[in-house]
Amino acid sequence: MAGKRSDHYSGIGGQAVLEGVMMRNKNRYAVAVRTPDNDINVAVEEYVPFGPDNFIAKLPFIRGVFAFIDSMILGIKTLNYSAAFYEEEDLRTKRRQKKKLLDRILGDKAEGFLSTVTVIFSLILAIGIFMLLPYFISDFLRRFIVSDTVIAITEGVIRIVIFVMYLLLISLMSDIKRTFMYHGAEHKCINCIETGNALTVENVMRASRQHKRCGTSFMFLVVFISIILFMFIRVEEPVLRVVIRLLLIPVISGISYEIIRLAGRYDNFLIRLISSPGMLLQKLTTREPDEKMAEVAIASVEAVFDWRAYLLKEFRIEIPYEEEVDYYA
Predict the structure, then answer these.
(1) Mean pLDDT lowest for which of 26-30, 75-79, 81-85, 322-326?
(2) Whether 31 contacts 82, CB under 8 Å
(3) What is the dihedral sign for C-alpha 195, 199, 205, 208?
(4) pLDDT, tens digit, 9 for 90 and up, residues 252-266
(5) What is the DSSP code string of 50-65?
(6) What pLDDT, on a 0 to 100 scale, did the predictor assign at position 310?
(7) Most exposed among 52, 143, 164, 261, judged by the fewest C-beta atoms under 10 Å?
(8) E strand intervals along the chain
(9) How far apart are CA 64 and CA 50, in angstroms?
(10) Distance of alpha carbon 211 from alpha carbon 168, whole angstroms
(11) Domain range annotation of the chain
């Protein structure tokens, strides 16, 4: 499966937020946001992983479950942070009042509580739309289709259609379009340095906006792998079929994570074949950014990743350091 090792893996990743980009390097992450007054605000923090700090959480397939939860927690947290720059004053005041109330009740656990509730709600919504809804639609079709194999394939096709339609619909929203442009800027920054180029606006704009380690590719793999597993795991009892689908979600996410890891580290025909549908879907979830968006993405990378040292180590390209910016100030 592995084959030829992919050169120059940087290990950094991120996501688009409202008018900005979050970049993560190990447990350190930065959020860069283009503020309403056209400045770039950069915040850097340490992230404490969700899973236990032991070897179990780092085992193949198990680590993918914790990585997925971490990405959701951090994604929601950074999205809320960026959105706060564009809230109306009355909404900002209400948010502060709610936060003060929760702080009184829960103390320093208030933020964690809110993040947990949001993640649980998001997971329930995603499971309902992308896992259970296709099952119930295909189960309804059992009165017209006798073959279990055809039913399983039908459920998979419905799941893919719902996923693609969801991406198409949200891509029509103006705010999402801009977020997808920042998503493109995030990918372009990573591709820029991983192909041995200095992290400048000009180089970033020339880089590809598609990347094999993208969350879009991960989500497609979740859908695709669920189709394969559900085709082979069959039971007669309808309630048990639902339970099995729910219980297999961690397994599916764990397998998908391992494939994404391989895609980021290795390059061969099979890896390219598996990655191609996700790369194609990225044409929906990424758009070409403008230069101002590239500047924001670059600021986020530079806050947590020494790309000059990386280029020197991986490509033997030496680029002089400019004046460092203290992003913690």
Answers:
(1) 322-326
(2) yes
(3) positive
(4) 999 999 999 988 888
(5) SS-SSGGGGSTTHHHH
(6) 96
(7) 143
(8) 13-17, 20-25, 28-34, 40-46
(9) 12
(10) 19
(11) 13-315
